[in-house]
Amino acid sequence: MIHKSVLLKETMEFLQPKPGGIYLDLTFGGGGHSKEILKLSNPDGIVVAFDQDAQAIIEASKLKETYEDRLKIIKENFSKCYNRLLDMGFIAFDGIIMDVGVSSFQLDDAQRGFSFLKDGPLDMRMDKNNPLSAKIIVNQWGRYELENIIRSFGQERFAKKIALKIEEKRNKASIETTLELATIIKEATPAYFYKKIHPATKTFQALRIVVNSELDNLKEGLIGAIKLLKVNARLVVISFHSLEDKIVKDTFRNFSQQKIVSILTKKPIIPSVNETLKNPRARSAKLRSIEKIGGSI
Ligand SMILES: C[S@@+](CC[C@H](N)C(=O)[O-])C[C@H]1O[C@@H](n2cnc3c(N)ncnc32)[C@H](O)[C@@H]1O
User: Fold this and answer.
1) DSSP 195
2) Counting beta carbons within 10 angstroms of the beta carbon of residue 155, is it exposed (0 to 12), middle (13 to 18) or buried (19 or more)?
3) Closest ligand 1 atom to the C-alpha of 28?
C-alpha cells in the first residue's frame, strides 16, 4: 500500500514552504510531506530528510532522480539531528516536520513484524541495526517488566493477565511470530471488552515503543528540532497516541514559558472526517505547531 501522508494540507498551511527556503523532514517515511515541500518551494527550496529505516532511505533515493541536489538524505535517528546536522554545516531551517509513528510500508510488510494481522517474525525494529527486537522482550524479559511496559506504554488494563499468559506459553516454547503473540493476547483478554479494537493493539503498541525507544527519541528529537529552527520559522509535529502527544504538548509549553517559542495550536489539529474516511490510519493523528520567537537553548 502507498503511504498516504496524514494532515498534509494542514502541515503545509503551517510551514508555508517558499522558494529559496531550507526545510527539514525528520521522518521521511514514504516521502509525502517532503515531496509537497519540494513542490511548493520550487524551483530552489531544499529539503533535508531523515529516517532511521533503510527502506525509507531507498524511497528517498528514488525521489533524488527528480529533485537532485534539492533533496539531501540522511539515515539517522532524529534524536541525533542537532549534532549530525551541525557537523554537516546545517545551522538553521525555515521549517521542520516530524510525523512520528509507523509508515504504511513498515506496517504492510509482514516480515517487519509490526502487524498483528499478518504473520511475520516478532521484530518491530525501525532500524535493523537496533540490537533489541520484540522477540527478545517477549521471550527474555521478566514477567513483571513485561506487565509494566504493557501497562505503561500500551495503557492496557489487562497487562497482568497478558504478561502471565505470555510467561505460561513461553515456558513451553519460544514465541516466534506476530500471530502467535496476537493469539496469546486474545486468550488472555475477555472478548466482550474488544468490540472496537483488536485485543493485541495496545500490547503491540507498547512493544513497538520500547523496541524503538520512541518516547525518549521523541523528547530528544523535539529539543534538537527547536534548536534548529530559525527565528520566525515553524515546527509541525504529528503524533498518533496520547503518550506522544503529551510529550509534544509539555515540551512546547516548557519552551513557550521560556519565551523561545510561541504555540500556534492551543488545541491539536485533527484530521477531517473526510480524511479519516479515505485513510483510516489517520484517525488518531494530532498535529501541534510552534513558531520560534527567539532565545537560545
Ligand atoms: C509516519 S511515517 C512518516 C510519513 C511521511 N511523513 C510521509 O508523508 O510519507 C514515520 C517515519 O518516521 C521514521 N521514524 C520514526 N522514528 C524515527 C526516529 N527516531 N528517527 C528517524 N526516523 C524515525 C519511521 O521509520 C517512518 O519511516
Assistant:
1) S
2) middle
3) 5
Whether residues 97 and 227 fall in one domain: yes
Half-sphere exposure at residue 263, Cβ-oriented, CA atoms within 13 angstroms:
18
141 and 197, same domain (yes or no): yes
**Distance (Å) from CA 103 to ligand 1 centroid:** 6
236 and 203 share a domain?
no
* 174 CA distance to ligand 1 middle (Å): 31
**CA dist., res. 198 & res. 141, Å (int):** 24
Same domain (yes/no): 138, 220 = no
Q: pLDDT digit string (tens) for 193-241?
A: 777 789 999 999 999 999 999 999 999 999 999 999 999 999 999 999 9
Instruction: List Cα–Cα distances, 131 to 124, 126, 128, 244, 284, in angstroms.
Output: 11, 11, 8, 23, 29
pLDDT over 90 (residue 261)? yes
User: To test the ligand 1 pocket, which listed residue (51, 82, 209, 238) has its Cβ within 8 A of the most ligand atoms?
Assistant: 51
What is the distance in A from the centroid of ligand 1 to the CA of 175? 28
Q: Does residue 136 sit within a domain? A: yes
Bridge partners for 133 per DSSP: none
- Write out residues with Cβ below 6 Å of ligand 1: 3, 5, 27, 29-33, 50-53, 56, 77-79, 99-101, 103, 126, 217, 221
Mean pLDDT of 136-140: 98
Query: How many domains does the chain divide into?
Result: 2
Residue 2 has pLDDT above 70, yes or no: no
Indicate which atom in ligand 1 lies nearest the CA of residue 35.
Answer: 8
**Does residue 153 form part of some domain?**
yes
Residue 68's CATH number? 3.40.50.150
Tell me how many degrees the CA angle 261-46-212 measures, rounded to the nearest 5: 65
Q: What confidence score (pLDDT) does residue 196 get?
A: 79
* 196 is a domain residue: yes
Q: Is residue 280 part of a domain?
A: yes
